[in-house]
């Protein structure tokens, strides 16, 4: 389904709110010895895409990444700065953009299974990019990087994606009832 916003201002405000939500959910973090914490970032990125669509959802994630790039501590563990993009977890940060875009494309599908499948493709991209950069920075093999930086999080991230899809549907129904958006 596609969203029609009542005004450009509504679109901008909603994108900002979702960027802020992503920043807040990134702080709910459980550090692990691998250097990659368990967070709700994946849930929030998927929620941005599923709720706002490919364009606005990706823009909200882009705002979040831009805020972090200039040093505002919005990333997990209250970190920020351009160095975050070249560190062990930087690949995940970069991959949030295509993940939000693919979740947004999934949201446009009328078939729930297809919508989730497209969203899962975004999750795969996220994990591939994250594992690849982890391997480069940590000087480990790609397989070991996957086992350390991706495999422990797959089940949590898959569940987060499904919950984000369901939460987005509820949010969109509420926005439609409030007459802030029209679903077409």
How would you describe what is shown here?
α1 (8-26) crosses α2 (41-69) and α4 packs across α5 (142-149). The chain is globular and about 50 Å long. The protein has helices at residues 8-26, 41-69, 90-107, 112-138, 142-149, 154-177; strands at 3-5, 29-30, 38-39, 181-183. A hairpin with a 7-residue loop joins β2 and β3 (38-39). The model has no long low-confidence stretch (mean pLDDT 92). With 184 residues, the protein is mainly α. It has one domain: Arp2/3 complex 21 kDa subunit ARPC3, CATH 1.10.1760.
Question: What are its keywords?
Answer:
184 residues; mainly alpha; Arp2/3 complex 21 kDa subunit ARPC3; two-stranded antiparallel ribbon; globular
Short précis:
It contains 6 helices and 4 strands. The protein has helices at about 10-25, 40-70, 90-105, 110-140, 140-150, 155-175, and strands at about 5, 30, 40, 180-184.
In order across it, which strands form the biggest sheet? 1-4
Cα-based radius of gyration, to the nearest Å: 16 Å
Unreliable runs: none
Tell me the domain tally. 1
Distance between termini? 6 Å
Let me know the number of strands.
4
The gross shape turns out to be globular
Write down the CATH topology.
Arp2/3 complex 21 kDa subunit ARPC3
Per CATH, the architecture is: Orthogonal Bundle
Major beta-sheet overview: 2 strands, antiparallel
Element order, helices and strands?
EHEEHHHHHE
CATH class: Mainly Alpha
Strand-residue proportion: 5-15%
Question: Helicity range of the residues?
Answer: 55-70%
Q: Mean pLDDT across all residues, rounded?
A: 92
Given the helix and strand composition, which structural class is it? Answer: mainly alpha
Helix count from the secondary structure assignment:
6
């Amino acid at each position: 389904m596609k969203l029609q916003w009542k005004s450009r201002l509504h679109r901008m405000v909603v994108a900002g709110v979702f960027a802020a939500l992503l920043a807040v959910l990134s702080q709910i973090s459980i550090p692990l010895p691998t250097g990659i914490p368990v967070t709700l970032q994946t849930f929030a990125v998927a929620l941005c895409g599923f709720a706002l669509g490919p364009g606005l959802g990706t823009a909200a994630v882009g705002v979040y990444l831009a805020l972090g790039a200039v040093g505002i501590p919005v990333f997990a563990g209250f970190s920020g700065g351009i160095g975050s993009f070249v560190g062990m977890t930087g690949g995940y940060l970069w991959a949030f953009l295509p993940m939000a875009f693919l979740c947004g494309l999934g949201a446009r599908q009328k078939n729930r299974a297809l919508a989730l499948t497209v969203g899962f493709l975004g999750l795969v991209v996220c994990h591939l990019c994250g594992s690849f950069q982890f391997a480069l920075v940590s000087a480990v093999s790609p397989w070991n990087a996957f086992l350390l930086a991706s495999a422990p999080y797959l089940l949590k991230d898959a569940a987060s994606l499904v919950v984000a899809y369901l939460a987005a549907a509820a949010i969109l129904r509420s926005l439609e009832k409030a007459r802030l958006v029209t679903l077409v």
